[in-house]
């Protein structure tokens, strides 16, 4: 498991390149708007930390991702002047594919079940380094810097709500918060249509959902499942899980635009949908890369 | 004219109640997203400073405003536990009227030409204090805190672009910036359909446009004209003006949602539209209270 020192060290490495997001008052609670990062998502923190610590990066980096991690690795690679090859599943929103290309990465579109295989082939062909989306200590430590910032800005915080999928974000945030303040509750948020971690915590062991089941939710960045590494953090550090419906997710997207003036993607609004049931605390708005047509539709219908 | 000390003193007074907005990278420049303030606009800064310095506020406060100042005064009054009566013109977007009521203010809707008279009548009837939207040193000093924050976060800033209407925001920001750093250019941005300050600077004296002319722009918060006090600051401190078309304003609203994940109202995007012509510097995103239907429309058509 990663340590508080890993997170503190990551904070020093990434500080010059990330936005120090403020906490925004929101009803009885607060928002941590990671949607304001240059690539529109928290993923930049983990990718920057992992890439900065790579010893052998001159042959480039490879990543597979449904979107935000792709942009994060592309951004970090451009910053360090190394080539990036990104494998994306063919159901990725167009806005995320275009944004990744605009950051200078070479993009490979494949079927969702082929993406790991294709990424590994690229690593073998090029001698490049794979930066996984969540299953890596440096990635987790980078995401954990969000937890440090929340405690700095709101020392008397009672609850932090974090979206869960592969579990990299909540593993890092929970490490930072629970090491410094055991009394703060760390709550995971999941779409009910991809609630494998809620099931796992009830069962006391990692329960697998079929990828086709997890793919049903509109929260396209929350269709992954934990690795052994992130499951270890989650099972030891997370206090509880709140699951939310598809309607609740889209209502949260609309509410964020209307009341917080934030553009959030569905995945980025899942913790806010959970916070609405809970009535307070800090919710991490994890990303803002929504297709404009969907946002437009949500604003008139939710 | 106000002084740097007035702005610094305002910063101390308002710090506990405003969001310390970060600078967000945006193309070759930066954004200062005041749309993230609790009421969705920079106006909170000036209203909080003015209300905190009122000696005789127990009988309440009165304001007239096309929207964001209304919410700012309502928020500040609630914070201090005093009643607020707000006079709003009948062409104010519904979202701003509802938000003002939700903050506990008593709202009076009148024709746009009657608003000052009605506000003065309320002051006389109730013995309440009028908080003007821009024509007051404490209001200007509060808005100027944005300039201090920009210099703190980006010491090597070259240009700051600020929307202009009544001129309170740019008067405060220019006072802070030009006193500390004469080499930083302070540029005003105006809709071409309400470009009375551009005309005034060319003429070397305050030129008046008919209110009906100024009312044509979609930037509904930029339909005012300077007072003698703000004109004195503008004429002495502002380096240049960039005017933007209605199309450029709406394109900036769409770009901010897509690329910066910010919800901006048309008035709030005017400095960003000007920045796009200019290619860098810091643009103040002054507000985010847009009717959701308009945002939805802009996202699919601009």
TrEMBL record, chains A, B:
InterPro entries: Ser/Thr_Dehydratase (IPR050147), TrpB-like_PALP (IPR001926), TrpB-like_PALP_sf (IPR036052). The keyword Lyase applies. Residues 15-286 form the Tryptophan synthase beta chain-like PALP domain. The keyword Lyase applies. Keywords: Lyase, Pyridoxal phosphate. Coiled coil: none annotated. It comes from the Bacteria. Its cofactor is pyridoxal 5'-phosphate. SUPFAM superfamilies: Tryptophan synthase beta subunit-like PLP-dependent enzymes. It holds the Pfam family PALP. This is Threonine/serine dehydratase. It comes from Lentzea indica.
